[in-house]
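=== RUN LOG ===
request id: a7f3
mode: sequence -> structure
chains: 1
length: 175
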Amino acid sequence: MLPGLADLAAHIGDPQVRNRGTIGGSIANADPAADYPAAVVALDATIRTDRRDIAGGEFFTGLFETALRPGEVVTSVFFPAASHARYAKFPNPASRYAMAGVFVAKQGDVVRVAVTGAGPSVFRWHAAEAALAARFSTDALDGLVLAADGLNGDMHADAEYRAHLVGVLVRRIVG
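=== RESULT ===
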């Protein structure tokens, strides 16, 4: 059971999007501010298509780009269990898309921290993962700052603000 995934789904967009949209459609679109990609990467989900299985960490390849081949269709997504799996986001007030969103998953000794909304595509914050793998505590994050280089900046938030939000969100999730 993954209550963190259910909580993520409960806070996507508005009721129409939540009740009519699909996980497969969301991840195939690879919107940089979508919520599901963070769960796919943090939990290292398996994306099953009509032709093959794709590891979650290899699925997103860039801004609105995935490893899907022309004509390939997502048929299911498998999320493995985790001892800790939580998502938090700072939503844009109008669209509710993530200005920054973070999914933290702990599976055995492996910790993954996936970030959405802050960059051109979902990405992992490896420094936070290493710190949390050594000690799964907010104290382990002391002094860690996500570099703003390459992060999104727009009229809602600049890259530095998004980097700051990511740090705040990781601490909320772990704390």
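=== NOTES ===
Helices lie at 3-10, 15-20, 23-29, 36-42, 56-59, 126-134, 159-174.
The radius of gyration is 15 Å.
=== END ===
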